[in-house]
Amino acid sequence: MSMQSAILPHAGARTLNADALHADARRETFGLLALLSPGLLLVFAVIIVPIGWLFWLSLFDETGQLSFANYARFFEQASYIKTFVTTFKVAFV
Fold first, then answer.
1. Which domain holds residue 89?
2. Is there a single domain that holds both residue 6 and residue 36?
3. What total number of domains does the chain contain?
């Protein structure tokens, strides 16, 4: 140990330690995000995109015009509502 390093104040060592801990925390956060991203991408591709696509398609009629006819038909027929309710009952049980 040299004489120069022996007389360094302890405050400098604390700063270096705090910087190293902060760098470790950033590295760990980046690693966790790297582990999380493939799963999120899969959920997005398999669940979110198809549901969004179905919603988008439901807004148009057979001729391609913007229409709420599909939703009107859904609420007019009791069989659709019963199927919808049963589906969610089964899903939440």
1. 59-93
2. yes
3. 2
DSSP letter string over 5-70?
A: HHT--HHHHHHHHHHHHHHHHHHHHHHHHHHHHHHHHHHIIIIIHHHHHHHHHHTB-TTS-B--HH
19 and 42 co-located in one domain: yes
Q: What is the pLDDT of residues 16-57, one digit of tens each?
A: 788 899 999 999 999 999 999 999 999 999 999 999 999 999
pTM value is 0.59
Cβ atoms of 59 and 68 within 8 Å: the answer is yes
